[in-house]
Amino acid sequence: MKNQIKLFIISLILFSSGYHALAQKISEWRPENRTGVSAETGLLKSWPAEGPKLLWENLELTKGNSSPSFGNNKLYITGTEDGNDILYALDMNGKMLWQKAMGRAWNQSFPESRATPTVEGNRVYTCSGIGDLACFNGNTGEKIWAYQASEENKGTYGNWGIAESLIVDGEKLYFSPGGPETNTIALNKSTGEIIWKSESIDDKPGYVSPILVQYAGKKMLINVSLDHVYGVDVSNGDILWKVGHVNPREGRDNILCVTPLFKDGKVYVTAGYNIGSYQVKIAGDANSAEIVWTDDILDVHHGGVVLVDGYIYGSNWLNNANGNWCCLEWETGKKMWEEPWNCKGSVIAAEGMLYIYDEKRGNVGLAKATPEKFDLVSSFKIEQGDNGPFWAHPVIHNGILYIRHTNALMAYDIKEK
Fold first, then answer.
1. Which long-range contacts (CB under 8 A, 24 or more apart) does 295-299 make?
2. Is this structure's pTM higher than 0.90?
3. pLDDT at 210
């Protein structure tokens, strides 16, 4: 009997080890699970006046607005050169290891790269500004497969091309070309072959990276196009529900750039240019949805939002050059505060703190995530990088804060000592 118990324990350990080896960690856009709220702990709650310690900087990148992702003891980020979007691999000290063309870049207004690579195991998945998808070996940079997804599926574009960071789900990879043929497709992540195509809702894709959620017994992809927020059943590609945006821009395309938030069957959507924000409640059977509240304060341009302890934080659009920082109550949309601080920008969160990045002058702030007031604790200014807005979203990884500005990437030590 003792030997049988021992064999059972050994088998259980081997099975568990094999399971965890198969369940590979994914590094992607706005972790964790695209919420922008990091699971990192043990971080500084204030910074020195000159900012946290700069560990390294890399000024060799070409211009881009993507954030870094991580895997294989490497860092991956994108740029644009000679009409192509470029995937860069750096070591963890910021040294350039290799660079590979990943697809055709957007060639009109704001052509810089913007989609963040998605890393799973030793594979890196990329999307170019024209909707060319590719899969690379994360160690060598070898291109494993490529697929001109927008072109092959009669995809359409808004004025600024494609900005979708790809999402991996088991053996599938999702992308949203929009247009008259389909809104969303699922590909085999190993080969790039099509698994299913959703129906079309005859809409252009937004500049949005979608989220994957479980609700009402279904796994669904929630995405935002230029005219709708919608849910797709990822088992077969069926469009489960769709809701039109409030306050559309008359005679012009809406500009939707913000990954939605999801909690308990409710979805939060926001856009700049006075489109405003709203919350949608998905029905109990997941086959319909309706707007439950709207808001005209927090119309986020493209800096993202975070949900912390029942409150939404982000910055609004007053005009293209200005915006304030805001807090709304999740359940009602009630404004808790609105305060100016330099300019609108991007936001992430960790351990009850907000990390905010002003897009006009490059100020980085650390603030308490509280509905009582805008409570700034520390700030410093980014001086590196060529001319251009400070649009890349910050990332925290292993106690290091990564900040990008155009061609420059910086790593700051924010671990508590």
1. 295/328, 295/333, 295/335, 296/247, 297/326, 297/328, 297/335, 297/338, 298/270, 298/326, 298/328, 298/335, 299/270, 299/271, 299/272, 299/273, 299/274, 299/275
2. yes
3. 98
